[in-house]
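Following the same procedure, sequence and fold were stored together, as reproduced here.

>
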Amino acid sequence: MNYFFRTLKELKASLETKIEEYLRTKSEWEVPIPKGTSAYSKAKRAEYVERNLDKAVKYYKISIENNERVESAIKDLATVLHQQGIEIFCFTRVAVIFDRKN
């Protein structure tokens, strides 16, 4: 009986690894990430490939400050802040950043 449970645990671990790998590669295919080294493309890469939301926020803010794809960066920044659970301050922060540019 121990062998059976050990085998099931190994099978479960193997399947979880394969699923994570599949989802990682699938998301890279389906999400159009801009090419280049601009702040906006770095933000997209951080959000979808690296799955590092703090880094994505940093680069979206830089993109907005550099007047680079401002409207898209604001929308993406709001989405990332919402994912982080910063729902209350999300639109306030974005509005303040946007007002600074105008």
Summary: The two ends are 69 Å apart (CA to CA).
